[in-house]
């Protein structure tokens, strides 16, 4: 988290957990010199936001102590050079390759990703495969959910992603988002996939309508 401003209490808690790996609410309160009640309130908010995880540790016969640590999403709140490297690499490729070859490189990468997804999803029902796909995307930092699409026959579904794990890349290379759409289509070849919402257009989520092919 950039120190360009005075950190909020939540940011201070996240920074402490980054440095220490894990800590109890009492240890956090002591380290930050704030009340235990305030710490517990902030920890509850951070858990709701998916930024921290907790684990109950039993010591002896007493009540379990809860230890808190950053989730994958919580770690993503801190600066990383990975996105900058990816953007710089794509910049170099776009300068070195003709446009068609550059597009071919992107398409090849997304086809490989789709093949990986298909292997992981298996041959279950569409609902089961979409739940698994949402879980895979969630693990990659996309904050993905899947829900039934209302008033659709045959039944259809919507995958919603509230966070873009490749946002920095997409801002510099919007064409990457077109390949994201193709990624879902190739992952689910028995479905028609349509984008319904787009973060890059200023909306608060990306959405994809997944409909079985007739």
From TrEMBL:
It comes from the Bacteria. CDD domains: HTH_ARSR. SUPFAM superfamilies: Winged helix' DNA-binding domain. It holds the Pfam family HTH_24. Gene3D superfamilies: Winged helix-like DNA-binding domain superfamily/Winged helix DNA-binding domain. PANTHER family: SLL0088 PROTEIN, TRANSCRIPTIONAL REGULATORY PROTEIN. This is Iron-sulfur cluster biosynthesis transcriptional regulator SufR. It comes from Synechococcus sp. (strain ATCC 27144 / PCC 6301 / SAUG 1402/1) (Anacystis nidulans).
């Amino acid at each position: 988290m950039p120190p360009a401003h005075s950190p909020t209490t939540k940011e201070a808690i996240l920074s402490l957990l980054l440095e220490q790996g894990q800590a109890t609410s009492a240890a956090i309160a002591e380290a930050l010199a704030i009340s235990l009640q305030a710490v517990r309130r902030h920890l509850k908010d951070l858990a709701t936001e998916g930024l921290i995880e907790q684990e109950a540790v039993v010591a002896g016969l007493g009540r379990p102590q809860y230890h808190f640590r950053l989730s994958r999403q919580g770690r993503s709140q801190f600066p990383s050079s990975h996105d900058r490297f990816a953007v710089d690499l794509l910049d170099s490729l776009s300068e070195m390759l003709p446009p068609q070859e550059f597009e071919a490189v992107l398409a090849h990468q997304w086809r490989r990703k789709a093949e990986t997804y298909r292997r992981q999803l298996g041959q279950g029902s569409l609902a089961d495969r979409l739940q698994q796909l949402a879980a895979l995307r969630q693990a990659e930092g996309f904050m993905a959910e899947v829900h039934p699409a209302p008033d659709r026959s045959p039944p259809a579904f919507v995958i919603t992603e509230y966070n873009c794990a490749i946002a920095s890349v997409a801002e510099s290379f919007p064409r990457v988002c077109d390949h994201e759409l193709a990624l879902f289509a190739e992952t689910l070849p028995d479905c028609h996939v349509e984008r319904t919402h787009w973060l890059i257009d200023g909306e608060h989520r990306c959405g994809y309508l997944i409909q079985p092919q007739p």
